[in-house]
Amino acid sequence: MMDTATKTQYWHRTEEGKIQCDLCPRACRLREGQRGLCFVRACQDGEIVLTTYGRSSGFCIDPIEKKPLNHFYPGSPVLSFGTAGCNLACKFCQNWDISKSREMDTLAGEASPQQLAQAAKNLDCLSIAYTYNDPVIFHEYAIDVAQACREEGINSVAVTAGYICPEPRREFFQYMDAANIDLKAFTEKFYYKLCGGHLADVLDTILYVKHETDVWLELTTLLIPGENDSSKEIEALSTWLLDNLGPDVPLHFTAFHPDYKMRNKSSTAALSLTRSRKIALQTGLNHVYTGNVSDAVGASTYCPNCRALLIKRDRYQLGFWHLDTEGCCKECGQSLPGHFASQAGNWGPRRQLVSFSK
């Protein structure tokens, strides 16, 4: 088993003698032997270390649409992995068995950055996704994997809540090719009460990725009945995105199911997803999707100019493909924002486990 405790650089010693982690806005102040809320960063020998370098809760190949990314090489396979822990405390977490795990046994898999990059290449994956829990908390491991991937021509995809401080954020996204940022709601009350975080920090990350990097960006909002799904909030969210990011950043509305500490809530109704999508489109956003439900209309991609159907999807299965080899609409010639191969990928909805020999 590889040495999993790795030195980090984003920390400082406080006047009180504690060690403060400066990776994310939570700013955990730790005594010797303590772990931060994220679980994977700890104070050892008077500094902050990443305790889980090279360890994972599992490796598998997913469709890229599962991240979800609909405008980044649609239909392609992506080698996906995560670790354990999270730096937010979302009561509705849909991956809580991984993100809230405090058991090292969760991290049964291990692989070096070079092993992961080579595996992605050998398995014909165009990308590696850092997902299942938030990759910002395994910052050093994710960056090392991304660097190894660049040497092999493999893309790196971050699936993140965007809760990270400016300096480590610059380093992290320098090595990413695409990101889906989870915009959990559009009120500070929701973030503070249900996530233990702050909305402004997430919006700042979204603005940074859009305007200061070349990373392809898509956003996801999990709609929770009675919490963040009102028409007023959806309109406010959509208007902010239009005014600050423009009309072409894809937005995904996905369905919640009762889990973790919010088992008393009902699942998101399909009607709520379609209503939210309609509001966002009417606000002026060009690419709005529904997810975690069977909705071919809401999952498909349309031309932002003539509204012709360009990519038909049924969950993770691609069907009709109406883009030319340059990624433009075959009807009117309008370029579709994103990254597209000359033809559709054919990975489909498969999920394939991947193991690494020790």
Overall description:
The protein starts with 5 loop residues before the first strand and ends with a strand. The protein has 9 helices and 20 strands. A hairpin with a 6-residue loop joins strand 17 and strand 18 (309-314). The chain has 2 domains: 6-50, no CATH class; 55-354, Alpha-Beta Barrel (TIM Barrel), CATH 3.20.20. Helix 2 packs across helix 3 and helix 7 (231-245) packs across helix 8 (270-283). The model has no long low-confidence stretch (mean pLDDT 93). The protein has helices at 96-99, 113-122, 139-152, 166-174, 188-195, 199-212, 231-245, 270-283, 296-299, and strands at residues 6-7, 11-13, 19-21, 29-30, 41-44, 47-50, 55-56, 58-63, 77-82, 109-110, 127-130, 155-160, 178-182, 216-223, 251-255, 288-291, 301-302, 309-314, 317-321, 352-354. It is globular. With 358 residues, the chain is α/β, with parallel strands linked by helices. 26% of the residues lie in helices and 23% in strands.
